[in-house]
Amino acid sequence: MGAPKPISNLARLRRLVEESDFDAVIAVSPESVPYTAGVFIWTQRTIRERLAIVVWPKKGEPTFIVCTIEEAEARERSWIEDTRTYVEFKTSPIEALIEVLEEKGLVEGTLGIEKSYLSTAYHDELRERVPRARLEACEDLFYKARMVKTPDEIKLMTRAARATEKALLSTFATIQPGDTEKSMALRLSMAMLQCGGDRIKFLYINAGPNSGYPHRQPGDYQAQPGDIIRTDCGAYFNGYISDIGRTAVVGSPSGEQRSIYRRLIEIHHETIQVARPGKRACDLFETARQGYAKRHVPFPLPHCGHSLGLDGHEQPILNAFDTTELEPNMLFAIETRVRWPGEQGYHIEDLVQVTEGAPRVLSDFFATDDLFVI
Amino acid sequence: MGAPKPISNLARLRRLVEESDFDAVIAVSPESVPYTAGVFIWTQRTIRERLAIVVWPKKGEPTFIVCTIEEAEARERSWIEDTRTYVEFKTSPIEALIEVLEEKGLVEGTLGIEKSYLSTAYHDELRERVPRARLEACEDLFYKARMVKTPDEIKLMTRAARATEKALLSTFATIQPGDTEKSMALRLSMAMLQCGGDRIKFLYINAGPNSGYPHRQPGDYQAQPGDIIRTDCGAYFNGYISDIGRTAVVGSPSGEQRSIYRRLIEIHHETIQVARPGKRACDLFETARQGYAKRHVPFPLPHCGHSLGLDGHEQPILNAFDTTELEPNMLFAIETRVRWPGEQGYHIEDLVQVTEGAPRVLSDFFATDDLFVI
Questions:
Q1: C-alpha distance across the termini of chain A, in Å
Q2: Which of B116, B120, B217 faces A49 most closely, judged by CB atoms?
């Protein structure tokens, strides 16, 4: 049985490595390892010390290093043929890495490492053992590879976005006054799994005054008529992450609620429309900023969205400082929201594909132009 | 409304800091921050760059640093009164940390940092900005504080363990030949949430040949009569993690299956019995190793269990090298298992409390002495 083909763009990654100054790049993050190896070592996300590593040299084939516990999975599921192992606690993963570097003649080379992920402790260990190597941050290279999606990635992430929307719609359909946030969260979680999610990544569903907090654990508060129900949630689908936000109101919205939502949805559409090739990430932020200002909605937020894929927040980030130019087949979670802690909060978040022409909203399972009435 | 009291042992932490050589310790991990601040900043676990930080000086009161997005949550839910914020992307969290260090006269002090969590990139930034400070690893201090649980922590983790067992039992009760692993995983996930889990931490339920892999994503394989069903799963309960493993068989077990399970359960009981004050973590590993050898069960495993709490694997780890002496009110996930990839695998994992006398199995909702027959 052959290993499944990765859906990531390894040709793009290979080209970036070849064009770089690195003699090798070393993937250690729970995003770059599955991107390169084409296999998910789930414990990467739950047991930080248990590193999985891909050494990707400028010339030659990559090597995959995993703890013996994960060996069978790695050998059977990854396309990488050269797999090495280390015994946890007995041998450090860095020791196993050094052995590969020595064998490949890289110990005096320029090595790209993911400095924004690798812990200081592991870095110190590596630094000490290969004193003549130049250890340089290479996360930008991985970000650059990952930020343009393949057709298979787009297909998967579209399915994930729509499944998450379906879960939201089915949850909204069952909410009644008196329901606790916790019971709504349970129903939403179950719906996300029933709609195909492998596991929940994050899930916020808050009502009334709690809707004013971005990441409050759903609790015992009971939804009342007139309450805003604010959601923001995502799940893993074959390792890729969905991220969708929808807002509803219990019973008839007040004039103020209707007005706030109407203004937000206008800002949302305006921002999405800027997601075209040649525009920069910060241009979307600036459009959003102006849209909020023009409509007198507070905007103390550091970003109005982000790319996503194997990680929940990926580069480019739609903030004031990210000047990355957009390209076709980048995907963005564009999020338009406003919050007054202890009072109310609104959140609209969609998955948008940059195309050669107009941006395409992939999360189009149910319309958001009007506040959803429960 | 006053902030809820943390259930962690802050007096113990305070004493450890006072007895240490650190002028301050700096918590940054998703475990040590809630342990010290008494509040869960959930995005710590999902957005790595968005640090939350607690500066805990040897003398004086701690300071809590969060991104503005999390400000309201931190101010309302933490007992720490001094809260500072930074605007994501605009100001680095390290910049905010340095401001606090300057104000407290700590920039030339000995600072404890969690080097096994803090990324190399953030560490480099800190290093450069406080060149006269001694930055030393302090994770051992946090491990030491966290490894002895308070009565409230034990109560919560007992509830979590038993809820996870209940979810397993209710799932086992519904399995029929022909069920896919994916459908079993969905039912188990839902049951864990219905039994009170806030979100799933990890979840493996595999059948037949797939039961031989420790962390295979449940897929399309359909359980057959005679298949082993191996599980290993945990969820968050108020931020604390459960970790339970149970094994079942579809229909009547074969003589070989019965024999393997019988030997494992004997090893399991023998290992648990060593969990007493004065014994070392490695003594449990050695007991397990000998138990496997005596009963001719392969044991290529690097550990036979671990402590747990706010993290899934916490110190002490029950491996060959950890010489930590056990103390009353340490909790351990003791796991006894064997796997043949592509053939079959068994997993028994229980939550055990070290007491003054005999160890207490807290996950005692359903008996594991015999292989569970579906």
A1: 50
A2: B116
**Cα–Cα distance measured from residue B8 to residue B310, given in angstroms and rounded to the nearest whole number:** 10
CA distances from A40 to A6, A45, A77, A159, B343 (A): 11, 10, 9, 19, 21
Closest chain A residue to the Cα of B210, Cα to Cα: A73
**Tokens of residue A23, six digits:** 């003699």
Under 8 Å CB pairs connecting chains A and B tally to 153
- Ranges assigned E (strand) in B35-93: 53-57, 63-67, 82-86
Instruction: Read off the pTM.
Output: 0.93
Per DSSP, the residues of B240-279 read: EE--BB-EEESSSPPHHHHHHHHHHHHHHHHHHHT-STT-
**What is the dotted CATH code of the domain comprising B151-373?**
3.90.230.10
| Alpha-carbon span A202 to A179, nearest angstrom | 21
Cβ of B189 under 8 Å from any chain A Cβ?
yes
> Is the previous residue joined to B316 through a cis bond, with omega within 30 degrees of 0?
yes
Classify the complex by whether its ipTM is higher than 0.85, answering yes or no.
Answer: yes
Nearest CA in chain B to A318: B89
pLDDT in tens, A252-289: 999 999 999 999 999 999 999 999 999 999 999 999 99
pLDDT-above-70 percentage for chain B: 99
What CA–CA distance (Å, rounded) separates B167 from B173?
10
For B28-37, write each residue's pLDDT tens digit.
Answer: 999 999 999 9
**Interchain contact, A73 vs B215, CB within 8 Å:** yes
Whose CA is closest to A88, among B320, B12, B1, B250?
B320
Interface of B with A in 196-255 (CB under 8 A): 198-203, 212-217
Of A202, A212, A217, the CB nearest to B40: A217
Q: Topology of B10-147 in CATH?
A: Creatine Amidinohydrolase; Chain A, domain 1 (3.40.350)
Q: Which residues does chain A have within 8 Å of residue B212's beta carbon, measured at their own beta carbons?
A: 72
Tell me the CA distances in angstroms from A135 to A109, A127, A296, B334, one per residue in order. Answer: 9, 8, 48, 39
Which residues are paired to A314 by β-bridges?
A307
CATH of A10-146, one of 3.30.360.10, 3.40.50.720, 3.40.350.10, 3.40.1190.10: 3.40.350.10
Interface test with B, best of A119, A284, A323, A337 (most B CBs within 10 A): A119
| Mutant choice from A120, A125, A194, A217 vs B, greatest count of B C-beta within 10 A | A120
Token pair listed for A368: 């958001």
pLDDT at B367 over 90: no
Which amino acid does the sequence have at B283?
D
Tell me the residues of chain A between 150 and 179 that have a Cβ less than 8 Å away from chain B: none
Instruction: Closest CB to A46: pick one of B72, B88, B312.
Output: B312
Q: In chain B, where are the structural domains located?
A: 10-147, 151-373
**A143-167: average pLDDT:** 97
Helix or strand holding residue B134 (H, E): strand B134-137
What local confidence, expressed as pLDDT, does residue B3 receive? 66
CA triple A332-A333-A335, angle to 5 deg = 130
Q: pLDDT class for A5, splitting at 50, 70, 90?
A: confident
The pairing of strands A53-57 and A63-67 is antiparallel
Contacts of B301 in chain A (CB under 8 A): 69
